[in-house]
Amino acid sequence: MPQRVLIAGTSPLLAGRLAARCLSAAAGTEVVLLSAAVSRPGAPAPDRRELAGWVARCGGGDAGPAGEPYVPGAGRLTVVCAEPEGAAAELTAWTADQVWGVVPGWDRSPARAARADAVLTGALLAALPALGARRYVHVGPDTAPEEGRTHRVRRDLERLAVQACLDAGVSWRVLRTAPVVDGRAADLGECPPGPHRLLWALRSVRAEVEDRVPDWFERHPLRVTGVAGLGLSLLTGERAAGELWRAGAPAGLPDGFATVSRPAPVPLAGVLARAGAVHGIDVRPVPDREDFGAADRLLDLRLDDVRRQAVRLRDAAPGSGDGRAPDQAGSGTAPAGAPSLSAAGQWALFGSVRAGRTPPCPARGDAGLRRRVVEVAGRPLVLFEGGAGEGPPLLVLNALGQGPGFLSRLCAHLAPHHRVVTWQVRGTERDDPAWDTRRQLDDLDAVLAAVGGGRAHLLGWCTGAKIATAFQRHRPEAVASLVFLNATFRQNGRWDGMDTKYESDLAAVCRALDRRPDKAARMLDLLAPGAAGGRGSPGTRDAGVLGVLSGALTDEVRRPFRDAEVLVRYARQLVDLWRLDSAAQAARVTVPVLFVGSEFDGISSPERAREAARRFPHARYAELAVAGHYAPHDRPALVAELVSEFVRAPREVADLVRYAEITWHIDTEGTAR
């Protein structure tokens, strides 16, 4: 008898594979695929057309006329996309004989995954009577008690599902699966735990290094530690979906639980070696971190949750050279498991993952924003605007004297989630009149009026942080929140010992030029930052290759130093800005504030920014490890994720974006860590 199956999930990868299985299983079955994937910077959720194409590929279909995806059983698949919070409204339009809730918790952020999975599951369970469902199948992660809070949260969600089914008189199955590895995961905006995080770590570190020194990996290996005696289970998405379908779909199965068997683990050192080779990286396990360089440290941090997902191999004794205590080495001893993926299979799979798409990240240009010119104070002001998203716009304040290139990558990652507006800061071009802080505030007023926003979120990079703070005091009702990236809070006359060497040198030269502009030509070569921003604070390790300036910024960084007249204008703007005591205004700032700093910022003092953050009543301070002053350019997806989650949920941001490469110095109001 024909039936309708509703498959709703936060994982389009797994839900799509299950939809393809369902369509192939019975000729008369109609499938509604409800994707409630959470879209975030660096991992955009797929749209309806992409999901239909994914189901087609899983079912062996090809592109149809005009490139439209052909799905086996065409006309029997309906794809719906919604945020988890919007799933309840979408469910009101449907009935279904069988409902699948696919909530494996594969978001990089455990807190975000738990919230999205709980919201979707709650919507599905509440809708069961109205849907007319006779059966409910819950697909969650296979967690172990050693995983603590994550394990408890997932088991609570299972108990909620069972109880709701009992109350509604609906038969049920609870299925559990380990994370999968799948060549199409990146296409669908997913990066499941385990093997995918390992591949992402290698790919992301390589991209960040090669942006600075393209041939660096031809001469240098990457060193890793903490991998001896550990293994990863390489469960393919196709195999997981097949076993889940067999365990949950057949009619007549009794209520109960089932777990997809994990393949026998593959030694982590071998997985790293093959994955590294696929990415053109010589990966070398070492016993400790003593000689780690900056790139090694960054990889080590990004492999942190991979090691947590790993299991101890049966023949590995505790403490067998991996540098960690037994209770830190993954989630227990490995079971025997099914046959593991062969070496040849690993090569092919890792290669297909690498070939997957990556989100757009322009090296130069305006990030796809539209250019518009408005007149302010009788002179043209060039705006760049675009993007999507509800709520107040996000106004991006560039540093004094700088062009748009520093922030183009960041804006490209923010635009899919926010209405983004930035502009060419005035006052240093040859035909500009003197443009002090007061006039910068006038420009901000004009920008807000031009974009039609009564309120806005303000994001200030470097000196833009002080302008944003001054504007909040100028028009507090117009500011929804403040974000400060690599902020400088330097002030004239305050000798607190927190200046970076670059700040000290710049201040001395700017004061001299303010008095003697005729000396500018002789000082041009003294100030261009070059690789500054990657040296770090006294006592910290050298940023090494990650302290080298990105080639895309070579021209941008010299913009204020290209001739004597521009340098004098720039120096006078800074001297004027340094007269502001922004930190003294902090206590009266009532909106949420996010600081994002960098461990190796050699231009703007991280110590002073942390000290300033403690004065804001509602501030959080996140520091990026092994990053420099140009972190918004070098790690745009991570910075955009911090910004997006903060704008959406300022009180929760420290839980939602909590990764090993981020240290939260202030994560609750007024509490320093």
Automatic annotation (TrEMBL):
PANTHER family the UniProt entry points to: HYDROLASE ALPHA_BETA HYDROLASE FOLD FAMILY, MONOACYLGLYCEROL LIPASE
SUPFAM superfamilies in alphabetical order: alpha/beta-Hydrolases
Biased segments, Low complexity type: 329-339
Stretch list, region Disordered: 312-339
Domain AB hydrolase-1 residues, every copy: 392-495
Designated name of the protein: AB hydrolase-1 domain-containing protein
InterPro entries recorded: AB_hydrolase_1 (IPR000073), AB_hydrolase_fold (IPR029058), AB_hydrolase_sf (IPR050266)
Residues annotated as signal peptide: none
Organism: Streptomyces ziwulingensis
